[in-house]
Amino acid sequence: DAGVIQSPRHEVTEMGQEVTLRCKPISGHDYLFWYRQTMMRGLELLIYFNNNVPIDDSGMPEDRFSAKMPNASFSTLKIQPSEPRDSAVYFCASSTFRGQGNRDGYTFGSGTRLTVV
Amino acid sequence: DAKTTQPPSMDCAEGRAANLPCNHSTISGNEYVYWYRQIHSQGPQYIIHGLKNNETNEMASLIITEDRKSSTLILPHATLRDTAVYYCIVRRIGTGNQFYFGTGTSLTVIP
Question: Which long-range contacts (CB under 8 A, 24 or more apart) does B44-49 make?
Fold first, then answer.
């Protein structure tokens, strides 16, 4: 199992440009999460999906951010237009819920370090 | 989900046991205690979780007090590779499965 795969690992872009981050969850996992990590705010949950359907996007900072999950094996997080304050590490995680008391396989990817200049 | 309180940082000598405390005084009966750690620039990694009883696995032990208002993660023989930020998270089962991370404890293992 290759784990949760994120691409790219690093992204440097100019302010105003569109940025697309990609995530491939672990096969069989029915939950997918997008987190953002900065020094100031720590790890923030942005949005999560269950069976490809967005369940809670209350953590998405503003309309410039959007996320999609067109199928069970792929998700994107898009920022348009990007701003310097969007610079952060973006993590994707996937899991499946196996019921109380069971480890629920919450696995993170290696993250995408985004720098907006 | 219940909030947790952890010390911001701790040191531990290599080879000694690292005991990381967590307070969760508002925990409910159906909330589990989870521990994750994040090694620099990597994604958080699951360590252990429990409800009432103490738990042990190949990575660590989790001691939960009888009233469940606090817990301690124990790394029995800390190594330099255990230097990381450790997050204590309390989460209800059946609530969408999401985790909310606090600020955690930055553990430094000293040679």
Answer: B44/A43, B44/A91, B44/A93, B44/A108, B44/B87, B44/B101, B45/A108, B46/A103, B46/A106, B46/A107, B47/B73, B47/B86, B48/B73, B49/A103
Residues in B closer than 8 angstroms to A108, CB to CB, are 42-45
Q: Does the structure show a pLDDT above 80 at B79?
A: yes
Question: Which residues in B73-87 are b (16+ Cβ under 10 Å) and which e?
Answer: bbbeebeeebbbbbb
B27-76 tens-digit pLDDT: 988 888 999 999 988 999 989 999 998 999 999 999 999 999 999 999 99
Residue of A92, A40, A93, A43 whose CA lies nearest to B104: A43
Q: Which two tokens stand for residue B109?
A: 């293992």
The structure tokens listed for B7 are: 């010390």
Q: Do A110 and B42 touch (CB under 8 A)?
A: yes
Looking at residue B80, the DSSP 8-state letter turns out to be: G
- Output the six-digit token pair for A7: 């691409």
Residues in chain B: 111
Nearest to A101 among B45, B51, B103 (CB): B51
Q: Is A84 helix (H, G, I), strand (E, B) or coil?
A: helix
Least Cα distance to A22 among A82, A77, A65 occurs for A77
Q: Chain A to chain B, count of Cβ pairs less than 8 Å apart?
A: 56
Q: Give the tokens for residue A93.
A: 């995680």
